Structures are given as C-alpha cells and as structure tokens.
Amino acid sequence: MQLDDAIRGRRSVRLFRDEPVDPQVVRELIEFAVDAPSSHNAQPWHFYVATGEIRDRACEILSQTTLYYEEYLESLPDEQAETTIAFLASLGDAPVIIAVTLPSNDEPLDQINACMAVGGAIQNLQLAVYERGLGCCNITFSFWVRDELSELLGVAEDREIVSLVVLGVPAETPQDRGRDTDVVTFLD
Ligand SMILES: Cc1cc2nc3c(=O)[nH]c(=O)nc-3n(C[C@H](O)[C@H](O)[C@H](O)COP(=O)(O)O)c2cc1C
Q1: What kind and span of H or E run contains 126?
Q2: Domain 3-168 indexed as CATH 3.40.109.10
Q3: pLDDT in tens, 50-72
C-alpha cells in the first residue's frame, strides 16, 4: 500500500469481529509506533497491551465513563447516542486494548513534547494497522477512569495513561467524516 493511500484511507474503527489479533502482529505494530520522532529522541512512550481477562476488566472500568458523558450523550440524536453508549460500554468488542502512557510531568514544554511524540507514535501505529487490514480507534475518554485503569494494568507510578488504542479485525467500514480545508494561512 502506498503511504498516500494509507493516510487517505485510514478511518477510526469502532466495531470489531470476534477474532483475535496475533500477538506477533501487535509487537510489529508497536515497532512501527516507536519509530516515531521525539524531542531529543526521548521516546517518552510505554505501551501496555491488554487482551483476554484483563481486557474485559479494562472494558468494565471504561463503561463507567458514560457517567461523565451524560450531557454530551443527551445532546446527540437518539441513534448516535445509542451507538456512542454501546462503544463506551464494549469498545466495539475490540480484542486488544493498547494503553499509551507517557511520563508524568508538570513542565508545560515537557508535556507538549511528550504528547506530540506520542501522537506521532499512535499515528504510525494506526497507519500500520490499516495497512494490515486491521482496524483501530484512538480514544481519550479513558481520561475519566485513568487511575482505575493504571491500577489494573500496573502502570508505573511515574507514568500516566494518555489514550487507549482499541484494535481488532474491523466489522464495519466507517465513512470519511470529512475535513475542513480552509485551515492554512500562507504568508510571504
Ligand atoms: C486525540 C484523539 C482522541 C480521540 N478520542 C476519541 C474518543 O475518546 N472516542 C472516540 O470514539 N473516538 C476518539 N477519537 C477518534 C476521532 O473521533 C476520529 O479520529 C475523528 O472523528 C476523525 O475520524 P477518522 O479517524 O475516522 O478519520 C480520537 C482521536 C484523536 C486523534
């Protein structure tokens, strides 16, 4: 697959088939993730991969996030609210959850550097996922239950979860949600 096609074709997948992902494939995907650039090559990421029972327990914790989304969910049309609640509760039955962590740090520039590096790593991973015919969605709604998740996954005390990538074999073909194109100011 050409890089252009991967960038243009990738979509966030929120519904998965009841099929496992080969652990070796997950390792390969993370190798792509860590090829991302980072400030001073600090490589601030560490990934925790949850499958099986731990994945199920993480999902139970995540289902609590609906409590924090009540206002947002009420604002959605019925069908969209139902789909969103179902995803929050089951993660679309994704068999793999990858928790992405970075070092806890109060310094704004360190935070910016770490977040940008991790964002690049996640995008590398997402493109490699798509190239392999798999699907994933990067989610930050884990924010609301990050402490409970960190405890479950044994995340090191000096690190925090910034997002989860839920991964599996796609059971849907999401449409392009569209992009604004008027986003650049050219100056000369
Ligand atoms: C930083 C970040 C956080 C996101 N958080 C969530 C989330 O919590 N729940 C969710 O369903 N999707 C989440 N997404 C996926 C976006 O909704 C999705 O990328 C966007 O709607 C564009 O759709 P596409 O990825 O299919 O092109 C997140 C994406 C990014 C980059």
Answers
A1: helix 108-131
A2: yes
A3: 999 999 999 999 988 877 778 88
